[in-house]
User: Fold this.
Amino acid sequence: MQENLQYVLAAIVESSDDAIVSKTLDGIITTWNKAAEQIFGYTAEEVIGKPISILIPVDRLNEEFTIIEKLKRGEKIDHYETIRRRKDGELINVSLTISLIKNGGQILGASKIARDITQTKQLEREMAKLAAIVESAPDPIITQTLDGVILSWNQGAEKLYGYSSKEVCGRHISMLFPDDYTSVVPKLLIPTARGESVNDFETFTISKSNRIFQVSLAAFPIKGKSGEILTSSLIVRDLTERKGIERERTKILKSEQ
Assistant:
């Protein structure tokens, strides 16, 4: 029974998508599964018996000592995010979960589960960069659910409409249109829910101070990795100045005739 259990546990470790590595308290690697080979680039033969420090950038070597001391004090190391070095020298972001290996009351070593989160961190950086671009854009950029509930509201929207993000997030997009123009809303939401974009849609909108002005709207769907439509985004361009210029030109032309 005990042998069968050990076989099952060994099979689970070997088939895991996460790197599972065990080491002595002196930092010498004692086991190394296939996922560790894929993530870090070393074979088991290359690393077993070697110090775990071969995976750690020089400026982070003190982390191992700190981690072991925390484990000895009974503290949990769960999803600790840091950076490790592959065999080819590439630095990767990893999330570590580490626990002590004990036999009765005796501490034999430590077991480490490492998950490569490099792509996740890259995506987070790209999303943060995109969010910064959206926030600083001069035009209002509004994100809403497919039903029209406002989710995000940038500085451009705040400047044009006079509402803060707190005042509008969670409310329906129809609040931005005069009563005579609320029929515009489904003309924006229905196409984007089907995955279509709406461009150069001219209509009238209303600010917090009840100023009604003409705008050009562009609405487009926001899709997930699998292509599913998650939300939609609305870009608003104030046409007040342009329309004013057009009216002045029309007046001049009429006066010259």
